[in-house]
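hey can u check if this looks right to u? its 409 residues, i copy pasted from the old doc so theres a chance i mangled smth
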Amino acid sequence: MKDSIIILCGGGPAPGMNTVVFSVAKTFLSNGYRVIGLHEGYSGLFHKNPRTEDIDFFKADAYFNRGGSYLQMSRFKPTDEDFEKNFNLPLFQDNNVKLLVTVGGDDTASTANRIAKFLKAKNYPIHNIHVPKTIDNDLPLPDNAPTFGFNSAKDEGAHIARTVYEDARTSGTWLLISAMGRSAGHLALGIGEATHCPMTIIPEMFNKTAISLDKIVKLAVSTIIKRKLLGIPYGTVVVAEGVFHDLDPQEIKNAGVTMTYDEHGHPELGKISKAVLFNDILEKEFKKIGLKIKTRPVEIGYDVRCQDPVAYDLSYCTELAMGAYELFKAGETGCMVYVDKDGNPKPLYLKDLQNAEGKIPPRRVNIDGGLARNYYGNICHYITPADYEAAKALVANPEEYDFKKILNW
């Protein structure tokens, strides 16, 4: 029987999923392996009758450059009991599987770490290698290397955002854009910088002060007031969805926003538009301080996850896939594949990346790095002490909207 590999995809989609999966397939097929695609993410490893299919060259060649994910994905997370009672070892034994390739973000990587420990503890002769993906760009890769999917999502997000900016300029309004990014603001900042947005609000900005709804609102008002002083009656504000996830749930409840709550009383933010949420809260602030501003909400997230990958990700995903083969050939396991700037694959051992809970922590924006520092220092518009006197014609207390005072920078 031929040696085989299994490929699965976990979490949510990102541009390049198919490129990784089918580039892995092409590489291993050309080296004599059988390639098995496993549907429904990790759930297939803990199910007696998983949905699998063999991948041949023609299937790989037809799908490698398409958006979405041919292999159905899942956010399933196995329990300790699943590992002990439900792990489908016959799936590996009956198909002579030598390698499990997992493709996914931080949650999928954390589960891959648990699988690596499990395989080692049981002394099963199965290698596992993880390929890091996420449009959030929040996996801890060296040298600020992106996760695959990020650049494609940023490209499409920037396309939407600059169209929206033109709408704002044309109609003399403000468009409030929420960008995906549960734990980090990479996508929001990338879109904001690319489109010269006058204010981008990300969780990492609150490195010297506690995050609050009041501060988020004041940052948006600060840029609107500043542009009014400059004679610019329009603009966009990009907000990373993570700022709302970092808030005290009671704050959102107190703001009078209507939403559903889970069994613990926490707002189910995943079910609502963060752009609409922010727009509603900001309109209340305008009414309170007497500013007449027209705003409209725009959500960027699900519309950038399944697009066709741009050339960068087509090449990058192919390199990651070939890198997975090279690491496997070298005997590596329990690792995440990383490709350096020269295209050389290197292993990042999952056990070395884990925190005290055994999870892979997210990589956040370096708010003191050049990208963030220069963007906020040169492109953004906001109130400074030099604007206080002129701003008094618009608000009674302009110092409350001073960008650096709000953030304690």
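The radius of gyration is 24 Å.
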